[in-house]
């Protein structure tokens, strides 16, 4: 596959697959799961093909005899293969035997969890580092290790970041001409409503209500707006609003399709804080989907478009979508850490991203849609440092600027294009 773009997840798969009998790569449709998995497979069963499903149904042991690694592509189309794999693992399947890919979690399927047997990893749309805009000079892993050297310059500026927001991180879409790309993103969203929801066992009786909810969710990008507020924004002035159970079902189906990528709140075990918020920060799988749902293009974002309904967030839409793009990238880079956000219940203090390793040490990241950083921009990072002391391994502000450097107060300033794994 000469045109394959190596993914950051490939480095993790290089470690996991030789040591584990079964690994699952999951993520939204179009993120590149099959292309990544095919490079490693000696045998492939495409389970979205009825002929392949018939073959396995007729001979359940067939896949256990194929040359390894065996790729079971879109395994959710035949959920029973999950238990076939799990049982083979229990029976002593060799390391590197199975690689599964899935674009959805089967709804209502009676499958074993696979805990301890099938290890899952998520592939997201292309991060900024994977898009080849620039060679990163600042490593997230090194910052988590306490690195002090920070350097690098870039010519990437705000117009390029705007193009990356609307261009998407879907490998098969982003290389198309802009007019084609827009149509393909619209078709992607249409397929979610018209095909993916019914396939997940949730017929959409009022498609316009679901689309309205999706638009409102997109408008709430990078906020912790309540689901009640999102519903109210989706159906302004309507007395016949969908039931709460319906909107919960929307969320559950979108989550099962890996189309939601919400950032959970950080709830540390220590007693450094009082009254921390617990609501997640809302993100779709890719900021380009949010831009299309809100009907804004690069020119509208550059002009400061709000996108309806603007009361779900503070500030212009571009800032929220830039934070979404940076968050997508940070989550891709953080292969050995978890990513959260921090916000006090009264909103007095918030930190956009908290990257936490299992040892409890954290890296705090603020995302600023600006080329320069002021003392006011780092006040929440300073507040956090005063609360947790040595548990804070570092503080970072990600910007649209040109140069990476460390401020006199120790805060690292890094352009988004220069940050990498």
- State the helical fraction: 25-40%
Q: End-to-end span in angstroms?
A: 24 Å
Q: How large is the radius of gyration? A: 22 Å
- Cross-sheet strand order for the largest sheet: 7-8-9-10-12-11
What structural category arises from helix and sheet content?
A: alpha/beta
What is the overall pLDDT average?
91
Note the beta-strand portion.
5-15%
Q: Residue ranges: pLDDT <50 for 5 or more in a row?
A: none
Estimate the global geometry from the Cα principal axes. globular
The SSE order reads: HEHEHHEHEEEHHHHHHHHHHEEEHEEEE
Number of helices: 16
Largest sheet: 6 strands, mixed
How many separate domains make up the residues? Answer: 2
The total beta strand count reads 13
Structural features, described:
With 421 residues, this protein is α/β, with parallel strands linked by helices. The protein has 2 domains: 8-122, Rossmann fold, CATH 3.40.50; 129-420, no CATH class. It contains 16 helices and 13 strands. It has helices spanning 8-16, 33-38, 50-58, 62-65, 80-90, 140-144, 158-167, 171-174, 178-199, 207-219, 227-234, 244-256, 287-293, 298-302, 317-333, 379-388, and strands at 22-26, 43-46, 70-73, 98-102, 119-122, 138-139, 338-343, 350-356, 362-367, 392-399, 405-406, 412-415, 419-420. The strands form 3 sheets. The chain has a 6-stranded mixed β-sheet with strand order 7-8-9-10-12-11, with helices on both faces. Helix 9 packs across helix 13, helix 10 (207-219) crosses helix 11 and helix 13 runs antiparallel to helix 15. The model has no long low-confidence stretch (mean pLDDT 91).
